[in-house]
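Postdoc handover notes: sequence design on the structure in folder B. Input tokens:
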């Protein structure tokens, strides 16, 4: 009788969800029966729901205080057993086209559980199933709960799987992801924005062709929209907003890395992305996040600074742009490089010093004109003799650097001296003109600096 079968299914689901021994016994005997229900009893929606929910329970680990941690988990064994046959995966994918919401929902959960425990095998199986990935992509346009589960599923599925990444992109992933991000409120959105960005980053990581498709189909404006913040929004940095912004900055980092290491055309891809991002004025947003927003979380500031360095590295146009940028608001406006130097000299966070120092490393690398520009400003400032603390914001770059270099003698600030020395190293590296400039300063002679060419 149908009612008896449904009642038995409910009891079985409850038993498998609560008992490890039931999970262990279930696999070999239970899978053939429940898979047959999914094949032959599609009209009985309640029975199909129960079968799927039972399968999800069979693949969900049960926490226990007893037993060794190295003991084989019944849920893992069941995942392995269910994923061995491609036909089983094909059957599950076919259920995603059913009209019933709970059938689709439990199926997505079941596939996610399989991916958690049998990632490689499921990746291989889905590639063999016609329209398998297409069906999964359609779930991104489903009701919100199923859409969110589909995001997690696709994130698992696209990890280190270049072929799957290409198909997912071909199925319109970029358009769908940015549409969801926009609907959720960009960086002000919830965990769904975080999931979208994680999937996006899987698709472009070390993948030059997908990066190019993103640039040509969507452009970088939707990405930059996530990075937009208002000046003075000190109290708007919730934990989730910070995570979302970090995800978007990681996307920028991946684009600035280009293709995989050693691949022909990697540098071309990187330069193309540098140029395209700069054309969309991303430098302004990175400076606001990394330099001007000292009330922002330190991880956010550091990541933005690293992005600035990578954006300008060996890119003449972007180097010139950074050299001419001003930050702050009237009447407290100063050159961006001066502000970054101030971070180096004043921050109490080591990782922020490293990130800001990276900007100067990138700015000076194969940039003799930029090195000469910075070196030309190295001279004592009229107020320097009476200064006992950090450089003032209106002091020229080189004067602030020089004051920090002599600060160990003036006020015993050896840390500021060491940090300034790191910046000076970038300025004079492989540049005889800059070395001569530094060595010619009477101040350096007085302090017994030894310069080697």
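Designed sequence:
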């Amino acid at each position: 009788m149908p009612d008896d079968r449904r009642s038995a299914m409910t009891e079985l689901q409850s038993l498998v969800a609560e008992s490890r021994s039931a999970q262990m016994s279930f696999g070999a005997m239970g899978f053939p029966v429940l898979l047959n229900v999914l094949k032959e009893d599609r009209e009985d929606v309640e029975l199909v729901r129960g079968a799927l929910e039972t399968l999800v329970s069979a693949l969900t680990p049960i926490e226990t205080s007893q037993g060794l941690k190295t003991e084989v988990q019944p849920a893992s064994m069941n995942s392995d057993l269910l994923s061995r046959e491609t036909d089983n995966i094909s059957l599950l994918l076919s259920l995603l086209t059913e009209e019933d919401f709970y059938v689709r929902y439990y199926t997505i959960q079941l596939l996610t559980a399989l991916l958690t425990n049998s990632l490689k095998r499921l990746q291989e199986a889905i590639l063999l199933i016609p329209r398998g990935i297409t069906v999964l992509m359609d779930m991104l346009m489903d009701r919100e709960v199923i859409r969110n589960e589909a995001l997690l599923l696709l994130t698992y599925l696209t990890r280190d799987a270049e072929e799957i990444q290409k198909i997912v992109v071909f199925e319109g992933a970029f358009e769908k992801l940015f549409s969801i991000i926009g609907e959720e409120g960009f960086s002000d959105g919830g965990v769904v924005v975080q999931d979208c960005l994680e999937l996006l980053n899987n698709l472009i990581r070390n993948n030059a062709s997908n990066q190019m498709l993103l640039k040509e189909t969507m452009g970088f404006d939707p990405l930059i929209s996530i990075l937009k913040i208002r000046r003075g929004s000190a109290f708007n940095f919730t934990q989730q907003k910070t995570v979302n912004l970090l995800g978007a900055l990681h996307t920028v980092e991946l684009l600035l890395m280009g293709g995989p290491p050693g691949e022909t055309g990697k540098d071309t891809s990187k330069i193309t992305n540098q140029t395209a991002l700069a054309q969309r004025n991303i430098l302004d947003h990175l400076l606001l996040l990394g330099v001007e927003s000292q009330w922002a979380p330190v991880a956010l500031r550091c990541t933005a600074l690293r992005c600035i360095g990578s954006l300008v590295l060996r890119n003449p146009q972007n180097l010139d742009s950074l050299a001419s940028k001003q930050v702050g608001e009237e009447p407290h406006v100063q050159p961006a490089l001066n502000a970054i130097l101030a971070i180096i000299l004043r921050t109490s966070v080591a990782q922020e010093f490293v990130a800001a120092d990276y900007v100067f490393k990138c700015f000076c690398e194969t940039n003799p004109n930029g090195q000469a520009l910075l070196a030309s400003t190295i001279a004592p400032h009229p107020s320097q003799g009476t200064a006992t603390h950090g450089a003032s914001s209106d002091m020229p770059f080189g004067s602030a650097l020089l004051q920090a270099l002599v600060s160990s003698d003036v006020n015993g600030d050896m840390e500021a001296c060491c940090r300034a020395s790191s910046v000076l190293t970038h300025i004079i590296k492989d540049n005889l003109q800059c070395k001569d400039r530094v060595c010619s300063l009477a101040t350096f002679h007085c302090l017994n600096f030894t310069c080697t060419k």
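Context for whoever picks this up: The chain has a mean pLDDT of 89. Don't rerun without checking with the PI first.
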